[in-house]
Amino acid sequence: MTAVAPTPSPRAVNLGPAAELISKEEGHRQPLAPEFVSPHDFSPLEVAYDFGRVRREDIESGPRNIWRYKKLLPVPTTVEQTPNTEPGCTRLVRADRLAKALGVRRLWVKDDTGNPTHSFKDRVVAVALAAAREFGFDTLACPSTGNLANAVAAAAARAGWRSVVLIPSSLERAKVLTTAVYDGALLAVDGNYDDVNRLATQLAAEHESWAFVNVNVRPYYSEGSKTLAFEVAEQLGWRLPEQIVVPIASGSQLTKVDKGFRELGELGLVEASPYRVFGAQATGCSPVSSAYRDGHDVVQPVRPDTIARSLAIGNPADGPYVLDTVRRTGGAIQDVTDDEVVEGIRLLARTEGIFTETAGGVTVATAKKLIESGSIDPDAETVLLITGDGLKTLDALGDRVGPKATVPPSVDAVQSALDD
Amino acid sequence: MTAVAPTPSPRAVNLGPAAELISKEEGHRQPLAPEFVSPHDFSPLEVAYDFGRVRREDIESGPRNIWRYKKLLPVPTTVEQTPNTEPGCTRLVRADRLAKALGVRRLWVKDDTGNPTHSFKDRVVAVALAAAREFGFDTLACPSTGNLANAVAAAAARAGWRSVVLIPSSLERAKVLTTAVYDGALLAVDGNYDDVNRLATQLAAEHESWAFVNVNVRPYYSEGSKTLAFEVAEQLGWRLPEQIVVPIASGSQLTKVDKGFRELGELGLVEASPYRVFGAQATGCSPVSSAYRDGHDVVQPVRPDTIARSLAIGNPADGPYVLDTVRRTGGAIQDVTDDEVVEGIRLLARTEGIFTETAGGVTVATAKKLIESGSIDPDAETVLLITGDGLKTLDALGDRVGPKATVPPSVDAVQSALDD
Question: In this predicted complex, what is the ipTM?
Answer without folding.
Answer: 0.95
